[in-house]
Amino acid sequence: MSLFDVNLVSINEQFNPLISMDMVWANNLTTHWDINRRRDVSLSLVNAQLSETSGNEIVLGLGYRFGNLPIFLKSKQLNNDINVQFDFSIRKKQYHHPKNNRKCRSVDGRGKSDVYQSIRGLYV
């Protein structure tokens, strides 16, 4: 047994956001959308298996900007904007994993089935 025995190697790549667009309309309405991507890869050197998790996410947002709201601090009055934003996201994940009949890319080329997961969320 060596001093540095490596059993697992992991790589994480994340594009958050991959593509994004923010818009402010003439009536102070704000809209935006994002496309995010993520991928995690793990190589187990104990049993020579490669596990992969990948996911795509779309975020749609709608909001409103309240402008020139006065804030009083001691003897000063500041005019500030307050943004209220509602985001709806749809995330789809795909698992390639060696356990529980999930797809495993092993060194010898054997594989099993994929597992998909869909997640929806509302953020304020």
Number of helices: 0
What number is the mean pLDDT? Answer: 82
- Major beta-sheet overview: 6 strands, antiparallel
Task: Give the N-terminus to C-terminus distance in angstroms.
Answer: 52 Å
List low-confidence stretches. Answer: 100-109
Radius of gyration: 23 Å
Approximate shape: elongated
Provide the β-strand percentage band.
Answer: over 45%
Which structural class do you get from the secondary structure elements? mainly beta
Q: How many beta-strand runs?
A: 6
Q: What percent of residues adopt helix (DSSP H or I)? A: under 10%
The SSE order reads: EEEEEE
List the helices and strands and how they pair.
Elements: E1 8-24, E2 29-44, E3 49-73, E4 76-96, E5 105-106, E6 115-123
Antiparallel strand pairs: 1-2, 2-3, 3-4, 3-5, 4-6
How would you sum up this structure, described in words?
The structure is a single chain. This protein is an all-beta fold and 124 residues long. It contains no helices and 6 strands. It has strands spanning 8-24, 29-44, 49-73, 76-96, 105-106, 115-123. Strands 1, 2, 3, 4, 5 and 6 form a 6-stranded antiparallel sheet that branches.
Offer a quick outline of the entry.
The protein has 124 residues and is mainly beta. It has strands spanning 8-24, 29-44, 49-73, 76-96, 105-106, 115-123. Strands 1, 2, 3, 4, 5 and 6 form a six-stranded antiparallel beta sheet that branches.
Please give a handful of descriptors for the protein shown.
124 residues; six-stranded antiparallel β-sheet; elongated
